[in-house]
Design goal:
This protein is of the alpha/beta class. The protein folds into two domains: about 60-75 and about 110-450, 3-Layer(aba) Sandwich (Rossmann fold); about 465-685 and about 735-775, 3-Layer(aba) Sandwich (Rossmann fold). The chain is about 50% helix and about 15% strand. α6 (about 115-130) crosses α32 and α21 (about 540-555) packs parallel to α22. Bound molecules: ligand 26Q. InterPro entries: Glycg_phsphrylas, Glyco_trans_35, Pyridoxal_P_attach_site.
Length: about 800
């Protein structure tokens, strides 16, 4: 149906009428989108079935990537490009007077994630399939993804997100493969053939129904599966109050939890975690047993990866099945479990490590808790052997202690591989946060620097730049992104540099139109587009950026006209319960209001807050950026991946030596990046010796005292005491994230960046060098490393188109 334009049009029109029940002229964009989506989904079916059959026939090792989040965004364009039918569809639709772009806009974002961690999972799926690797995702089909953000009077307001309102054309409900998940109840113990046997008698069971989505690789025949589980009432509920049972059951997959490490310990979140893990492991084992008969060689054919600790119950769940159901001896089951499971850590903030109080855990998951206790007991015995008498060490490493289950400790003990997501982050894990575990298991620790799929983040979202690159070095980079390095040979080619500038200008115009449409504000595309888009967190220091804008405003008001015009653009969601983060959003909007309405300033600087930052908006933002703000307090950002998306689209980084910025610097060289601020070692030293005093910076730096005073002295006419808590965090609470400490060096580097922008060709050369060095940060490279060094999986016999 996609082999030629005429055939496509015919099928499309017939299908449109059949499925929408309307004639073509009466059909809406959404009808047309859905028709096309269903056609594409059907088109992949053949390869999907073949991929599944092949893996059943040839007994190839498979990896399952368990993640509580998959931040997929839209799928239509990605699927069209990966399947190689983009052109036929675009031209066929054009004949019918339909713009493909308009249909794409009808697709809701699948926003089943908070940010970096969830988006990484989505990039990994694309790379797995594109590299012909047998790797599948397992997640939750949340009815509502991350909340929709509105800005009302400068404040964030949250609305429930509704991506499933009109159905999801990419999924297939597999009711036949549903599994039952037990909760609550008690554990019965008996003796059978001289062996203690445990049986969980659940108080309630929930049905997990899988919805499968095809993941088609770029120009290959591999189609992997993303299996998302939905919670439904069990067909035989044994509950007194049926309505209440139905409601409680469905709640499990109703909402994605916003990343709120301040607000932990919600029972529903734990229920979600076990729901995902238990359903996934059961279905993995069922399909394994169909193929192999018994569980003996499980670890040789299956790898299970846990994305942070959220799915860590995979460890006790696999143990439970092997010991209770497969009647395996504990030691053998443990060896299989450890060699099957691998774990990625995404955070250095020790306060963010997951812990669950026993009083919540034990009643909800009584058998899993017993197994966790047994794992803990054996683990502590081993520690005692190795560190006799070192009770302090044993207590601090225990999996269960102080009335809590430590999920990271369970992951460290129960997996064979633990990785950080950038070199610096892995070093911090080894030598600080997880030092004792590194001493115990040095062989488990390894680094896998994050990556992004260059297909979504360059080929699809910046088609003009992608076209220019393909013209210059051929299209080989799409399969082998490290070949982007060949672009470096054009560093002195001024026609290439001018082309780059032109493309950037066009992308800036597109973003300017979006800004106009969303905010009513006109922005100047010849100004520097200086962009910070990411979740709002104190450690990411959006505050440093805003304070610096206030300082620039003050300079302008003092008559300094040596200012390179700049448009500051922000996008950020704050977790609904994160008071301080919400204050920063209000501050950004308040500064925007002041600056944009002051005729003395708004010719030189403007401030834009784009509401509801999400994948589809990101795709318009990255291609239009001149400056990428990556300004976290050094040591706090595990990796960052937005930094890579900006770089790949030719933006220059203003950043600290944190996360993957360090590796970006190594690749682009210091002349092509703007590095400032404390290094991680310095931050960690300050934190240890307590010698930082933010008040000194207030007293010694006039720029700083002026700005901080402005937060509370009526400078913002209607603000009242709105920003007192921000001023207090900086002065009374000693500025935990070293905003004032880094202010001077930030202001200095921003001046340097502005000067560099003044040299047009010089800037484009730097931009080119960033693009050229970005191939290393493709998730294809990352996934190859996981496949070779952790999962030990091989590509399916090459059958690329
Ligand atoms: C915790 C408790 C309750 C509810 C939700 C959560 C929760 C949810 C999501 C906690 C954390 C997350 C997400 C974390 C995350 O995205 N981390 C980022 O991972 C990226 C990919 O590795 C890194 O690039 C970022 O540096 C890291 O911050």
């Amino acid at each position: 149906m996609f082999s030629d334009k005429e055939e496509f049009k015919e099928v499309f029109l017939t299908r449109l009428e059949m499925t929408s029940g309307k004639s073509f002229p009466d059909s809406t964009k959404r009808d047309q989108y859905q028709t096309l989506g269903h056609m594409v989904r059907e088109y992949v079916s053949m390869n999907w079935i073949n991929t599944n059959e092949r893996s059943r026939m040839i007994k190839q090792k498979q990896v399952y990537y368990l993640s509580i989040e998959f931040l997929l965004g839209r799928l239509l364009r990605n699927n069209l490009l990966n399947l190689g039918i983009h052109k036929v569809v675009e031209e066929g639709l054009q004949d019918l007077g339909i713009e493909l772009g308009d249909l794409e806009e009808s697709e809701p974002d699948a926003g089943l994630g908070n940010g970096g961690l969830g988006r990484l999972a989505a990039c990994f799926l694309d790379s797995l399939a594109s590299l012909d690797l047998p790797g599948h995702g397992c997640g939750i089909r949340y009815k509502h993804g991350l909340f929709e953000q509105k800005i009302v009077d400068g404040y964030q307001v949250e609305l429930p997100e509704q991506w499933l309102r009109h159905g999801n054309v990419w999924e297939i409900r597999k009711a036949d493969s549903a599994v039952e998940i037990p909760f609550w109840g008690r554990v019965e113990c008996s003796e059978e053939e001289g062996r203690l046997v445990f049986r969980h008698l659940p108080g309630e069971t929930v049905t997990a129904v899988p919805y499968d989505m095809p993941v088609a690789g770029y120009q290959t025949e591999t189609v992997n599966t993303l299996r998302l589980w939905s919670a439904e009432p069990s067909p035989f509920p044994q509950h007194k109050n049926i309505m209440q049972y139905k409601r409680e059951t469905e709640l499990i997959s109703e909402f994605l939890y916003p990343d709120d490490t301040h607000d932990e310990g919600k029972i529903l979140r734990l229920k979600q975690q076990y729901f995902l893990v238990s359903a996934s492991i059961r279905s993995i084992i069922e399909s394994f047993k169909k193929q192999h008969g018994n569980m003996k060689d499980f670890n040789q054919f299956i790898s299970i990866h846990i994305n942070d600790t959220h799915p860590v119950l995979a460890i006790p769940e696999l143990m439970r099945i092997l010991v209770d159901e497969e009647k395996m001896a504990w030691e053998e089951a443990w060896d299989i479990t450890v060699s099957t499971i691998s774990y990625t850590n995404h955070t250095t903030l020790s306060e963010a490590l997951e812990k669950w109080p026993i009083r919540l855990f034990q009643p909800l998951l009584p058998r899993i808790f017993m197994i966790a206790e047994e794992i803990n007991k054996r683990f502590c015995l081993k520690l005692e052997e190795k560190y006799p008498g070192d009770w302090e060490r044993i207590r601090s490493m225990a999996i269960i202690s102080d009335g809590e289950v430590k999920m990271a400790h369970l992951a460290l003990a129960g997996s064979h591989s633990v990785n950080g997501v950038a070199a610096l982050h892995t070093e911090i894990l080894k030598h600080r946060e997880m030092k004792q575990f590194y001493e115990l298991y040095p062989e488990k620790f390894n680094n896998k620097t994050n990556g992004i799929t260059h297909r979504r983040w360059l080929l699809n979202s910046n088609p003009r730049l992608a076209g220019l690159i393909s013209e210059a070095i051929g299209p080989g980079w799409i399969k082998e992104p490290q070949r982007l390095g060949e672009m470096a040979k054009f560093a002195e080619d001024s026609s290439m540099l001018l082309e780059l500038e032109l493309i950037k200008e066009e992308n800036k115009q597109r973003l300017a139109r979006r800004v106009k449409q969303q905010t009513g504000l006109s922005i100047d595309t010849s100004s520097i587009f200086d962009i910070q888009v990411k979740r709002l967190h104190a450690y990411k220091r959006q505050l440093l950026n805003v304070l610096h804008i206030m300082h620039m405003y003050n300079r302008i008001k003092e008559g300094d006209s040596h200012i390179q015009p700049r448009t500051f653009i922000f996008g950020a969601k704050a977790s609904p319960g994160y008071y301080y983060a919400k204050k920063i959003i209000k501050l950004i909007n308040t500064v925007a209001e002041k600056v944009n309405n002051d005729p003395a300033a708004n010719k030189l600087i403007k401030v834009v807050f784009l509401e509801n930052y999400r994948v589809s908006l990101a795709e318009e933002i990255f291609p239009a950026a001149d400056i990428s703000e990556q300004i976290s307090t050094a040591s706090k950002e595990a990796s960052g991946t937005g930094n890579m998306k900006f770089m790949m689209n030719g933006a220059l980084t203003v950043g600290t030596l944190d996360g993957a910025n360090v590796e970006i610097l190594e690749r682009v060289g210091e002349e092509n990046i703007f590095i400032f601020g404390l290094a991680a070692e310095e931050v960690l030293r300050y934190q240890q010796n307590g010698e930082y005093r933010s008040m000194d910076y207030y007293h010694l730096d006039k720029r700083i005292s002026t700005i901080i005073n402005q937060l509370t002295n009526g400078f913002f006419p209607y603000a009242g005491d709105e920003f007192e808590s921000i001023a207090d965090s900086l002065l009374m609470h000693n500025d935990q994230y070293f905003v004032l400490r880094d202010f001077d060096s930030y202001a200095a580097i921003q001046k340097q960046a502005a000067n560099a922008y003044g040299d047009r060709l010089g800037w484009q050369r730097k931009s080119l060098m960033n693009i050229a060095a970005s191939g290393h940060f493709s998730s294809d490279r990352t996934i190859r490393e996981y496949a070779e060094e952790i999962w030990h999986i091989q590509p399916a016999a090459s059958h690329s188109k």
